[in-house]
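Subject: Interface between my chains keeps coming out wrong

I've been trying for a while to get a sensible model of this assembly. When I model each chain on its own everything looks fine, but I need the whole thing in one frame so I can look at the contacts. Pasting all components below, labels as-is. Any help appreciated, I'm running out of ideas.
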Amino acid sequence: MTAGGSEAGKFAGKDLELDKPNPARMYDYVLGGELNYAIDRQFVSEILATMPRARDTALLNRYWLRRAVRYGTQQGIRQFLDLGSGMPTVGQVHEIAQGVDPAARVVYVDNERVAVAHSEIVLDGNDRAEMIGADAERVDEVLGHPTTRRLLDFGQPVMVLMSALVHCFSPVDRNPATMISRYRNVLASGSYLALSSFTTEQQGDDIVRAAELSKDTSEPIHPRSRDEIRGLMAGFELVDPGIVFTPEWHPESPEDVGEEPELSGVLAAVGYKP
Ligand SMILES: C[S@@+](CC[C@H](N)C(=O)[O-])C[C@H]1O[C@@H](n2cnc3c(N)ncnc32)[C@H](O)[C@@H]1O
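Reply #2:
Try treating it as a single job with all components included. I did that and got this:
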């Protein structure tokens, strides 16, 4: 796609913010998707020039998300609430869940118009997977939304996904712990929370540079320590192996973990609500 080109025309009526790099589209480009524009690709190239690992970080997080969803389906979960779902990019939650059971239901939530606009287009025709444009922090709005009420039954276990979401929350003025506890309180026993976040743990200067560069986007990142992430999982029993780097969580083969899993820069965990 090119900004203002024919693909942009395809989304007439949708506000796609083509005048500045957009984190959701940049993420899509890094993952090999096609829902991005020249202005996004240019900014990604700048990031990759200083942080060549950024692409791997995104891919490894996405592979983890896929394994976490598959794990949920193996535990019998058929309902997913994906908060901060981003662009409808490669290997989406509903593709994985509905690939296991076509009856699986997914509600995607994102507060960014661009991600919502693209998701609505991609999900058109799938009546068991829908997108809501909402702030995940407005828990009552998300849970009370007609789409959530139609697709998800909170009397039954649900897997809540917060993949690469909480590092969008500054610890200074927004504590995701309150938001998480409010979702936890409405979940039935047997539900799960799958969460990943950029971390300061075992990281060099890269993560500091990434956080600095991200200040030029509409979505600065705030990496967290393992203890901070453990605090966010309060009230959930951590599924083995606990809070680990994305490649270490239920790898499909030892080679997938590699020699230095910490280079992923992202810690991930899945918790069970007893
Ligand atoms: C790095 S992307 C992660 C996308 C996807 N979850 C993944 O792991 O591939 C973070 C997403 O969270 C969304 N986001 C950030 N804060 C949010 C909030 N308060 N409510 C809803 N979405 C939010 C952003 O718009 C962005 O699409």
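Reply #3:
Confirming on my end. The domain at 7-272 is CATH 3.40.50.150 (Rossmann fold).
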